[in-house]
Amino acid sequence: MDPHVVDRVKLPLSYDAARLRAEYDAMGLHPYMFYSTVMLKLPHERKPEDPPTRSPYIMSLIEAFNQHTQVTLARLLRLEPGSEVRQHCDPMLGLEVPDSVVRLTIPIFGGENVTFYLNDTPVPMQAGECWYLKLSDQHRITHGGLEERVNLTIDMKPTQWVRDLIQDSYTAAQSHS
């Protein structure tokens, strides 16, 4: 796999979308317009005096990645119905970028009538799936659905474990196509 060429890989990891949705709903987040980012306190950042987390499942999957790499950021990305994210690139989010981090995306809900374009080609992400996307390339989102779209994104250092996970997933997908 050439990291300069491969722009998307569905990873062989899946998560309980209903459980993710229930934890999101329990957060009781405030209304927003267009686009909202909710920063999640990473498990290693929590202090004993912090109140119990309302999202133990989300925290456990972040911690599972943290066993193999350094998770640097975890967020919920919310997109209002009828909104769009204009085409842009995130120059520090690609395997091929020196000193970068990679972002894994886990859709939670609201993907119906939402199209994520990477290099002008749709990425068919479904709730509970986990994707590596080369976000240093051009990407955009259109949302024609009726409910908000929420994704969990986890940024991490591209350790050998992360690279192998992406490489092995890519190789497996190529052998089935």
UniProtKB/TrEMBL annotation:
Ranges for domain Aspartyl/asparaginy/proline hydroxylase: 37-157
SUPFAM superfamilies: Clavaminate synthase-like
Pfam families noted in UniProt: Asp_Arg_Hydrox
Protein name (record): Aspartyl/asparaginy/proline hydroxylase domain-containing protein
Provenance organism: Litorimonas cladophorae
